[in-house]
Write a structure and sequence with these properties.
- The strands form 2 sheets. The chain has an 8-stranded parallel β-barrel.
- It is an alpha/beta fold.
- Helix 2 links the parallel strand 2 and strand 3.
Length: 209
């Protein structure tokens, strides 16, 4: 069970997350996000990534030029698209990519799997007043159809308190958290991060046993 801590704005938080057992950290490059970071800040954060840790960049309906400008200066391991980007747009950067799917009761996940068959994973997130991630709101996990979990990253309102139940029901390949481990927007709480990571590891062990 892989863990991604998203909305990282400080190198110290990235280093702490990975040291505690997270597999990846995410930085937001969408200018309208309260957690957006500049290329300069992201480059500094990247210097705190070591070992098998991964850095993911999040974009929302941005131009290919904007995405490439980040890739030219920040060593991202993968890119994550949260808007209406097409499959062709997402795969043009020659990096593994994650496509976010805003979840509602009428989403056809089977169709999304086919539409983005080149994606490394689909990230299932909640829909909240036009906000792209980090809303702190969860969606109905019953909307996730059985048998589609191998490529799924579960996000949306996760915390140390509910992530075990989410994993038990959805059985995703990975989980993604942002606001659920913060003390204020963009600033991570080390105690919450550790509790979340420990809860994920415990839940994953329970599934395997």
């Amino acid at each position: 069970m892989r863990i991604k801590i998203c909305g990282i704005t400080r190198r110290d938080d990235a280093e702490s997350a990975l040291a505690m057992g997270a597999d990846a950290i995410g930085c937001v490059f969408y200018p309208k996000s309260a957690r957006a970071v500049s290329i300069e800040v992201a480059a500094d954060i990247s210097r705190g990534i070591s070992g098998l840790g991964m850095m993911v960049g999040l974009f929302v309906n941005q131009s290919a030029e904007e995405v490439q400008a980040v890739l030219d200066r920040v060593p991202l391991h993968a890119v994550q698209f949260h808007g209406a980007e097409s499959e062709a747009f997402c795969r043009q950067f020659n990096r593994p990519y994650i496509k976010a799917i805003p979840m509602s009761g009428d989403v056809n996940l089977a169709a999304e799997h086919l539409a983005y068959d080149s994606a490394a994973a689909l990230l299932l997130d909640s829909v909240h007043a036009g906000q792209f991630g980090g809303s702190g709101q969860s969606f109905d996990w019953n909307w996730v159809e059985p048998g589609m979990n191998r490529r799924l990253i579960l996000a949306g309102g996760l915390s140390a308190e509910n992530v075990a139940a989410a994993i038990a029901q959805v059985r995703p390949a990975a989980v993604d958290v942002s606001s659920g481990v913060e003390k204020e927007v963009g600033i991570k709480d080390l105690t919450k991060m550790k509790a979340f990571i420990d809860a994920v590891h415990s839940a994953a062990e329970g599934i395997q046993s």
